Amino acid sequence: AKAEGRNTYRFFTKELHAALIERKTLLDELTIAVHEQQFELHFQPVIQVERGNLYGFEALVRWRHPTQGLILPDRFIPIAEQSGLIVPLGHWVISQACAELAAWQKREQTQARLALNLSLAQFRDLDLTNHLAFCLTQHGLRPEQLELELTETVLMHDHDAATDIMHGLRALGIGLAVDDFGTGYSSLAYLKRFPVQKLKIDKSFVFGLSSSEDSAAICRSIIALGHTLGLLIVAEGVETALDLAFLKAFRCELAQGFHFSEAKPLNAFTKTMWPAA
Ligand code: C2E
Ligand code: CA
Ligand code: CA
Ligand code: CA
């Protein structure tokens, strides 16, 4: 048993060592990637549950790594957040998403909304509001078309400063949504405190919707609660027609997920894919 213990210990140090090396390498590579803009955006359509027409797109960043191929954000956003690289990366995401949506709208002769994800460090960046306003003007987008998705971590931190920035963004006409709702805590308190218009139910609740009574009850309650507060509800992670039927019965307004489409380059979508608005 003693020998086994030692082996386990050696195993863990080796694993830990490898993990640290991988992390350091990724950080070095990410620094270069931000300079060289080795990123691309994929967009996932957001659909109006009642009529099935297009509401807008959520932009999701990917890293086109020179040797590893496409890397998903869960592997590099945490490193970008801890290193501060998320600020320049986030600036790129905002500019690029606005540019791509403007080009898509011109090609399709229609308008769509754009949802962007924002990390805490970006939200503390004094330049954020100016940068957003600049990008909207530059690409001829209305502020009402843009919506920022904030997680509970962003909302929990620094209440006063966060509230000021949010009111400033609202004054410009930009929309605010709570992302991953239900996964953090203090959910109810900040819903009243912050000027948000939308709630996104975390996909972990939506996944079990049509198979688990608990998940169905949680989704139904979040939707009812949100409606009481005058909020629009988005369900993410909608993978089946049955999930969608539940959401429709619960009067959830908006949905996104693999049932409709995964995130893809924006030019993969045309307005004829959905009923006319
Ligand atoms: P999120 O904002 O909660 O985005 C939803 C994630 O769920 C996306 O993963 C999306 O591809 C995935 N998804 C959508 N529908 C389904 C479905 O039906 N089934 C399943 N299994 N998954 C689905 P992705 O693209 O890997 O993004 C992961 C997270 O990375 C995002 O979670 C967001 O928190 C973060 N992220 C992505 N882009 C950005 C960005 O530009 N800035 C910041 N700060 N964070 C970002
Ligand atoms: Ca999101
Ligand atoms: Ca989410
Ligand atoms: Ca998430």
UniProtKB/TrEMBL annotation:
<feature type="domain" description="EAL">
    <location>
        <begin position="23"/>
        <end position="277"/>
    </location>
</feature>
<protein>
    <recommendedName>
        <fullName>cyclic-guanylate-specific phosphodiesterase</fullName>
    </recommendedName>
</protein>
